[in-house]
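Email to the structure team, subject: ABC transporter substrate-binding protein model.

Hi all, the expression group asked for a predicted structure before they design truncation constructs. Nothing fancy, just the tokens so they can compare against earlier work. One-line instruction: predict ABC transporter substrate-binding protein, return tokens.
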Amino acid sequence: MRHPVRLGIALTLALATAGCSAAAGGGSDDAGRSTAPSGTNTTAGSGAAKAVSVTSCGRELSFSGPPKRTVALDQTSTETLLELGLQDRMAGTANLKTKIPAVYEAAYATVPVIAPKIATGEQLRAATPDFVVAGSTDLYTEDRAGSREELEALKVPTFVSAVDCPEHNPPGTTPFELLFSDYENLGKLFGAEKRAAELTADQRAAVAGAGRNAAKVPGGADRPTVVYLYSVFNGMPYVAGGTSLPSEMSRIVGAKNVFDDVAEDWPEVSWEEVARRNPDFIVIGDLSERGRPGDSAAEKRATMTGHPVISRLPAVRDDKILEVPGIELDPSVRSVHALGLIAQGMKDLGHVR
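Reply from the structure team: attached below.
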């Protein structure tokens, strides 16, 4: 994360680290004046909380003041809130898939874990939240945390990342723009607009930096092609389809996802179909910390080099393989890091003039 191409996200994480201690509570400035905790939004001169509202996945959320007991139902939402310096506003987190990055560890340690995996309705209610945040709609089901309607009836507003609400987004909006809208909306709700604006500006710069590759890559049919191998389950590959974030990453860096024609995020395909599409290079999502069979980058490499057909592909034979953290291939505050790795990797593999 210290590579020059990734200075944008490194700066963002440094800002988050610097803000963690300040977000923990009020104090005083150099002149001895009282300061409010991060996330406090007050009306100038009155001390009264400022009423705010945003729309999330088709629902309007209104608050008379910043939420105080937020529960994040997944790691994506947890890390976004921590990046915004809002750990003091969190009453719980759940569904940790991989190790929390070192930059978030201290802040994460202050937040109760209500469930190590997917939270149930009982576990969520026990945390007495006044706001619930999730990266995907499938966490709001009756057999999980409860439906959004059910929680709304309990006077608990719910937020879903715009990335997982395609029916409510303007046509053509990119996944990164949707992530930036999440930062803006959460910043507004918590009175952390400045932090959200800094994060958005930094990540926009990182996306633009990765996109500079595209101008140096031959256009049209000559664009380098790529397969994103996310998982191998029961011997079968799961790859990035046309609706996934990696397809947008490919466009940004001037490559083409060979499974763009599959209207799914992570479809199961056959190794023979991967071979037929013969990608110029392969991106492996390393999910070692998740710990399931076939999750690690080493296992995926071994599967490909041991396969009678895939092992003969030039991309495998010539080791034109890039490794990135698997969790970063799903939309999150960390995705610009994977984008930077892919942009740099294309240069290293000779796909950029």
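The domain at 4-23+37-207 is CATH 3.40.50.1980 (Rossmann fold). Residues 150 and 218 are 52 Å apart (CA to CA). Ping us if the truncation boundaries need rechecking.
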